[in-house]
C-alpha cells in the first residue's frame, strides 16, 4: 500500500498534533514492499516521521471515521482510504512503539490527509508495542 504513496505530497493542513504549523509531507518508502515509510515535512527539512502500515503489526486494528473527517478528507469510497501510524523509535529497535490512538488517515485519490484522535474509550494507546514480545522459554519439556 505504501508503494502507491511513494513521492506523493500529502496535505495534512496542520492536523498533526504538535506540528500544526506544517501542512505538507512527502512520503518516501523505506524499501519496495516494506510496511515502513518516512513522512518528511516539505516546509521544514528537520521534521520527519517513521510511519508504518498498522495492519502488518496489528491485523485486527479498526476504528470508525467520523462523517466530518470523511468530508474534510473528501472521501467518497473505502478504496480511497489508507491508514498509517507514527512510530517512536527506541533502543533496541525491537522496543519501538506505534501510536495507534492517533492514526494518520489518507485519501489516496486527492492526497488529503488528517491525523485523527480516537475516542477516549478506545483500547489503543500512543505507545503500543510495535513488535509483540516473544514468550520466554520456560526450560520445561
From TrEMBL:
Q: Kindly provide the name given to this protein in its UniProt entry.
A: Flagellar assembly factor FliW
Is the Metal-binding keyword given for this protein? no
- Organism lineage string: Bacteria, Bacillati, Bacillota, Bacilli, Bacillales
- Is Chaperone a UniProt keyword of this protein? yes
Record InterPro entries: Flagellar_assembly_factor_FliW, Flagellar_assmbl_FliW_dom_sf
Regions of biased composition (Basic and acidic residues) lie at: 130-141
Entry keyword set: Bacterial flagellum biogenesis, Cell projection, Chaperone, Cilium, Cytoplasm, Flagellum, Translation regulation
Q: Which organism is it from?
A: Paenibacillus violae
How does it associate, per the subunit comment? Answer: Interacts with translational regulator CsrA and flagellin(s).
What is its biological role? Acts as an anti-CsrA protein, binds CsrA and prevents it from repressing translation of its target genes, one of which is flagellin. Binds to flagellin and participates in the assembly of the flagellum.
Q: Which family does it belong to?
A: Belongs to the FliW family.
Cite the residue spans of the region called Disordered: 119-141
Chief localisation class:
cytoplasm
Source domain of life is Bacteria
Cellular compartment(s): Cytoplasm
Amino acid at each position: 500500500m505504501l508503494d502507491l504513496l511513494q513521492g506523493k505530497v500529502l496535505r495534512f493542513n496542520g492536523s498533526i498534533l504538535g506540528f500544526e504549523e506544517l501542512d505538507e509531507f512527502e512520503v518516501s518508502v523505506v524499501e519496495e514492499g516494506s510496511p515502513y515509510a518516512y513522512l518528511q515535512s516539505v516546509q521544514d527539512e528537520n521534521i520527519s516521521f517513521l510511519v508504518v502500515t498498522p495492519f502488518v503489526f496489528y491485523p485486527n486494528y479498526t476504528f470508525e471515521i467520523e462523517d466530518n473527517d470523511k468530508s474534510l478528507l473528501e472521501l467518497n469510497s473505502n478504496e480511497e482510504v489508507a491508514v498509517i501510524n507514527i512510530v517512536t523509535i527506541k533502543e533496541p529497535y525491537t522496543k519501538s512503539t506505534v501510536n495507534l490512538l492517533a492514526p494518520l488517515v489518507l485519501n489516496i485519490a486527492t492526497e488529503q490527509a488528517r491525523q485523527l484522535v480516537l475516542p477516549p474509550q478506545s483500547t489503543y494507546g500512543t505507545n503500543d508495542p510495535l513488535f509483540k514480545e516473544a514468550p520466554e522459554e520456560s526450560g520445561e519439556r
